[in-house]
Amino acid sequence: MKKALFILSFVSFFVSTASAAAYTKITPGENWLDTDGNFINAHGGCVLYENGYYYLFGENRTVFYSNGISCYKSADLYNWKKLPLAYTVQGVQREDLQDAAPGRLFERPKVMYNKSTGKYVMYTHWEDGNNYSYARVAVFYSDKIEGPYTFYKTYRPNGHDSRDQTTFLDEDGKAYHFCATNMNTDINVALLNEDYLDPSLSETLILNGRSMEAPAITRVGDTYFGIFSGCTGWTPNAVRSAMSGSILGAWTELTNPAIDAKSSTTYDSQSNYILKVNGKENAYVYMGDRWNSHDPGSSKYVWLPLNFRSGYPFINWYDSWDLSIFDNMYRYKRAKSIVAGNTYALLARISNRLFSRDGSNFVVSVDDDDTKNLQFVFEATSTSNLYKLKEVKSGNYLEGGTGGLALNAKNTNITQEWTFSKQANNYYYITNRSRNQALSVDGSSVSNGAGVVLQVKASSMNQLFGVYFDSKSFEYEEDNFFKNTPSTVSSIESVKQDKPGVVIFPSMNNGDFQIRLTNRTGNNPINLKMFDLNGMKVYETIISGDESSSTIQLSNILAKGMYIVNAKSKDFSVNQKFIVK
């Protein structure tokens, strides 16, 4: 017994000593100790910022048993001081299920501050402690951010079964509850009442039939983004993502935002929250749990930077990182339009990586690296949207020959001429004039160092590239692709309908459509725009006045749903509803 006591004391001394040095970085998936040298026990949680401090809330567990809700405090996001439990299980279990007593299960706590009531409101997933059949939420409130919180009640939101859940507080003070419902088949979104304690009747089902859970929601500009997981229990899976211009509107599913090794398991984690870092523009953190299925209370944390510079979420793996990573994350910014003579970089839509050269002089897409990333001066030709690309460092020109891509001395061959065709969300197909093939990330790979080649144009995401500029060197006009302008929709709905011989055909297909021009008056260029029903612009291009028809290839890019297409020139304006099946 004394020997065992000595060993225990030695271990306690070792753990406390190990925590003496303050953390200066975040190391995903490794042991994370609080300022007292104990493992942080706050799973499935969230982080709030108030008065110079971050507050971390999460499940406090002993193996599978719920002790209540933890609360930790930090000034820097690295070092966390343990505070008393925000809620400690108490009371007795009741047959009407209106309790937060010992033996119950509390998961995924989320806390919001209600400015109108001055109360902090907490939501958790609630179960009876024996299985996951009750599928309820438990709601708590407090006058102070750290608690203690008072139990309000448990319920199923508007009668929906609710398992993995989160809350989202919008900029206008409205709060929303997201939950996996219909036996984890759909996600339900409900606007909460003004006091945040109950759902209103305004709700919608999103991502129907996609079997997602572990929702985490954020807003960037006027666009809402969601991170989700599949439903595989404690076993990690490939993270999902989605976006919308209206939180209660339709959501468009996106690709897996994890792009490095172990992306198929989200770096062995499951999403729980998206943290907006205070004081840094567009600085977001993916918060995930690396669950221990045998002892959830000892599960570790995977926190990683969340990058939105492409207009979509991406999560890279870092063995360790600190907040300075956000200082240069948005150094390369999307250009609003191409201006001849300007210097640009090319960014692959599929991976958020930059057009580059590796040590063997192959053209590749890689992470930000000044020794590898390429920048080009866009030299005008006699044709609109057709450019010669002069690489800045070498002075050579990008050329597409029979042997593939190369950087060669300037010549008069059309192999050095590139057509930029604008697609959805200001991305481009970049086609070699000679070969009539498009720049493509080989094999649709998202890997760092994936090759860039010429392939037959196929309306594929791996052929979409963004035109970006180095904001440390240039001050070009930036594309505010997160801005949603509702006035644009009203202008479309109010324009005069006439019959200039412009037909948008067909009205139902997989995303591709054709503009046919017959019996036109004038030959002015046509500005073509497409909007989803939330008013978010999803595509824009210009059709020259001498074209009799133009095919728009958007298959595999647009989500299923209804859109409004507006074709407008100086002599006409036409609108048509467009359905993608």
Residue ranges: pLDDT <50 for 5 or more in a row?
Answer: 1-20, 485-499
Structural class: mainly beta
The residue fraction in helices comes out at: under 10%
Please count the beta strands (DSSP E, at least 2 residues each).
42
N-end to C-end Cα span = 71 Å
- CATH topology type of the largest domain: Tachylectin-2, Chain A
What percent of residues are in strands? 35-45%
What's the number of domains?
Answer: 3
Shape: globular
Oligomer designation: single chain
Largest sheet: 11 strands, antiparallel
For the record, the CATH architecture of the largest domain stands as 5 Propeller
Query: How many DSSP helices?
Result: 2
Residue-averaged pLDDT:
88
Tell me the name of the CATH homologous superfamily of the largest domain.
Glycosyl hydrolase domain, family 43
Which CATH top level class of the largest domain fits? Answer: Mainly Beta
Radius of gyration: 27 Å
